[in-house]
Specification:
The protein is of the alpha+beta class. The chain has a domain at 9-129: Gcn5-related N-acetyltransferase (GNAT) (Aminopeptidase), CATH 3.40.630. Helices cover 33% and strands 34% of the residues. A hairpin with a 2-residue loop joins strand 7 (153-164) and strand 8.
Length: 184
């Protein structure tokens, strides 16, 4: 059984590592932000208890190897600026799903691209996955562009897949194959 508990993935400007209870306030600042949550599949968090509960759940899922959520920390000041995740593992078919979020103060600086490159290398090289999938709101143009820069291809559209509050939204489905990642 694999465990992600002690995993750290560095890049030039970032360190990806599991979240700890000391990160709860900064995590709350990300997932309570209406700009971040605009295209998410659940509403913005209202209390810091949601951040603490998420970190507790992550600790269990990391230890069991079921879900890999990494905090994205800026090396220069150790600030938590976002998260990126691999989840819904299907190891028989060597695939999983990708998720990510970034605080608006860190937008348009290349941080998410840098973080996802490190995470995708880990997914394809270390975990030996063959395929990654992402599901985004098609109105989230910035997220679509991020995925496409990484080599993801839009493969489908699921109409009216999510209902958050009273807002109904579609899902654009993207896929990336290991061979495409390696050949870019």
């Amino acid at each position: 059984m694999r465990s992600f508990t002690n995993l750290e993935l560095p890049s030039d400007r970032l360190l990806l590592r599991p979240l700890q209870q000391g990160d709860a306030e900064e995590l709350f600042q990300i997932f309570s932000n209406p700009q971040v949550m605009r295209y998410w599949s659940h509403p913005a968090w209202e209390t810091i208890a949601s951040a603490r509960e998420q970190i507790e759940l992550d600790e269990v899922e990391l230890a069991e190897g079921d879900h890999l959520r990494m905090g994205i920390f800026r090396k220069q000041d150790d600030a938590l600026i976002g998260t990126c995740s691999l989840f819904a593992f299907d190891m028989q078919n060597r695939r999983c799903e990708l998720g990510y979020a970034l605080h608006p103060d860190a937008w348009h600086q290349g941080f998410m691209q840098e973080a996802l490159c490190v995470l995708l290398d880990y997914a394809f090289d270390t975990l030996n996955l063959n395929r990654l999938e992402a599901d985004i709101d098609p109105r989230n143009v910035a997220s679509a562009k991020s995925l496409e820069r990484l080599g993801f291809v839009q493969e489908g559209l699921l109409r009216q897949r999510w209902i958050v509050g009273e807002e109904v939204s579609d899902s654009a489905l993207y896929g990336l194959l290991k061979e495409d990642w390696r050949s870019r």
